[in-house]
Design a protein that fits this description.
This protein is mainly alpha-helical. Helix content is 50%, strand content 11%.
Length: 143
């Protein structure tokens, strides 16, 4: 024998052919024995986690909707003030511009919610536009 010795060579024995369905049944039975006591574990874990997950999702949705409303109101007030500062529009036209720009919000902005003031800053004419909006909750779920 040489340096690498693998031992004596054995003849190949025949392998017993087992039906595939029998093998799967044996595996299934052994797995049932192992996991017999954990049948409702997933349901219990989900009942603990699901309410917390839903509160987080609702909170994210409400914050996103509030930020959208805030940005829309600030942009529309800025556009109204810009239009008024160039003396290109009357107060009613400024209010109409703001109403058109805030039309995408869920809660409507009325003309009573818009205040246009003509003021002077350092001797220069300026326009101050204030837009107010009462928001309702999107999902209206008390937390």
């Amino acid at each position: 024998m040489g340096f690498f010795s693998w031992g004596p060579i054995r003849p190949i024995t025949t392998v017993e052919v087992v039906d595939r369905s029998q093998t799967l049944n044996m595996i299934e039975r052994s797995l049932r024995r192992i996991f017999r006591r954990e049948e409702g574990q997933g349901l219990v874990e989900m009942s603990f986690i699901l309410p917390l997950f839903l509160v987080m999702v609702v909170g994210v949705i409400e914050v996103a909707d509030g930020m959208n409303a805030y940005i829309t109101l600030v942009d529309s007030a800025r556009d109204g003030a810009r239009l008024g500062s160039k003396n290109l529009a009357t107060d009613d036209e400024i209010k109409n511009l703001i109403i058109i720009e805030t039309a995408r919000l869920r809660d409507d902005v009325a003309t009573n919610d818009i205040t246009v003031q003509h003021i002077q800053v350092d001797g220069v004419d300026a326009v101050r536009v204030e837009v107010c909006n009462d928001r309702s909750l999107l999902l209206n779920i008390p937390l």
